[in-house]
Design brief:
Largest sheet: 5 strands, mixed
Mean pLDDT: 93
CATH architecture of the largest domain: Alpha-Beta Complex
CATH topology of the largest domain: Spore Coat Polysaccharide Biosynthesis Protein SpsA, Chain A
Bound molecules: cytidine-5'-triphosphate, magnesium ion
């Protein structure tokens, strides 16, 4: 028999909500994503992380179901798991979990069961980042353009560089979290998450990068997304990398100056197109979408999306990376070949590779350029042709 040392970290998995917005017949935690429930998927992730006490907070009347899911997920770690009954609000449910902590626990993570596909690595990363004084949350940059409104009017734009979207698990030093919860109970205040409650008690909270897979299943559309992700994972099991190819051609004849490979080329003739005509960016978008099986550039950025009229290539690339991330893919690398008489590309190759790589969140991009021996439309100098090949990988890559 293997003896597991008594852990000093506990993970409270709150699963006691009713799932009003999901609108299913049973509490959200017990709804099937595939043949496994939301709670079972969440617990699969929790028990795949480093050993910790696992406290499952179940809806009243469903403690036995939660226990069954816990035993199925825990394997030989079932002695680390315990089920308690939740409360009216999420905050009361967390408080119920806190009362079940073992004496040796010094770090507490609070995790939404509804974030069922959270990678175990995110759980470990949060646990590792907690200090004796400060909490930590996983968070993602905000992608959408945000506005502050009052009634039907837009008051101002909100600078999204100052904002992140919070996820779970959120980790805290045990003693300060317990004191913070006691203070919240005494004041009667309700907080939207544990980080807000902890910060209201005067303690600092840091953030680390979260994962697109840690999204919360709230609405039926979220449940669909989780189902698609699991289906895609299974279809390509074991999770194989996937390649895609994209080509694009534009004629010279646009307004202004040339934009190519994410760079402006002063003095060079512009390419025509709905956007800035950056054929390199467009070919890469098609290669990436094709690799992930997510359609093509016309579908996501075509003339039915007027917001992209005149947009530069980096906007397309950053958005494409987000579309892939939402579907559970990371970008491995991209290789591009450009056919054109001009501009003379080699002198700015490195600069272009850096610009495109930055727009793709640091994924490797390499570009070669060639002329076509005066043959064809590129040889006659009528336009530019590009071929791109992309490799994408299911899951999250460290970059
Ligand atoms: N939660 C809980 N106890 C509550 C309310 C919520 O343990 N009284 C848990 C949920 O089970 C979920 C997490 O907190 O895992 C995040 O809450 P949310 O997504 O809002 O879930 P529900 O409250 O169940 O959904 P809804 O708000 O749509 O009713
Ligand atoms: Mg709720």
């Amino acid at each position: 028999m293997t003896l597991i040392p008594v852990p000093t970290t506990a993970i409270i998995v709150v699963a006691a909500g009713s799932g009003t917005r999901l609108g299913a017949a049973a509490p959200k935690a017990f709804i099937g994503i595939d043949e496994r429930s939301v709670l079972r998927h969440a617990l699969d992730g929790v028990f795949a992380a480093s050993p910790a006490q696992v406290i499952i907070v179940a809806p009243a009347g469903h403690e036995g179901d939660a226990e069954t899911e816990m035993r199925a997920a825990a394997g030989d770690r079932a002695n680390l798991g315990i089920v308690v009954t939740g409360g009216e609000t999420r905050q009361q449910s967390v408080a119920a979990g806190l009362r079940a902590l073992w004496g040796d626990i010094t770090t507490v993570l609070v995790h939404d069961a509804a974030r069922a596909l959270t990678p175990p690595a995110q759980i470990d990363a949060v646990a590792d980042a907690v200090t004796a004084e400060s909490g930590v949350i996983p968070a993602l940059p905000v992608i959408n353009t945000l506005k502050r409104v009052a009634g039907g009017d837009i008051i101002e734009a909100v600078d999204r560089s100052e904002l992140v979207a919070a996820q779970t698990p959120q980790g805290f030093p045990r003693s300060l979290l317990e004191v913070s919860y006691a203070a919240a109970r005494d004041s009667g205040a309700e907080y939207t998450d544990d980080a807000a409650l902890f910060a209201a008690a005067g303690h600092p909270v840091a953030h680390i990068r979260g994962s697109e897979l840690a999204f919360k299943i709230t609405t039926p559309a979220d449940l669909d997304r989780a189902r698609q992700l699991l289906k895609r994972g299974r279809a390509s099991a074991p999770l194989l990398p996937r390649v895609g190819v994209g080509t694009d051609v534009h004629a010279y004849g646009g307004d202004g100056e040339l934009w190519l490979a994410g760079l402006q080329w002063p003095g060079e003739p512009a390419l025509s197109g709905h956007s800035d005509g950056d054929v390199v960016a467009h070919a890469i978008v098609d290669a990436l979408l094709g690799a992930a099986g997510l359609g093509d550039i016309g579908e996501h950025f075509g003339t039915s999306h007027p917001e992209y009229a005149g947009a530069h290539g980096d906007v397309f690339l950053t958005r494409t990376r987000q579309i892939l991330a939402d579907a559970g893919f990371s970008i491995g690398n991209v290789s591009v070949q450009l056919q054109a008489n001009r501009p003379r590309f080699t002198a700015r190759r490195a600069e272009a590779e850096v610009a495109l790589s930055a727009a793709l969140g640091g994924a490797s991009v390499s570009i070669s350029a060639t002329t076509t021996d005066r043959l064809g439309f590129t040889g006659r100098g009528e336009g530019v042709a590009v071929t791109a090949v992309a490799l994408v990988v299911p899951g999250t890559l460290e970059q």
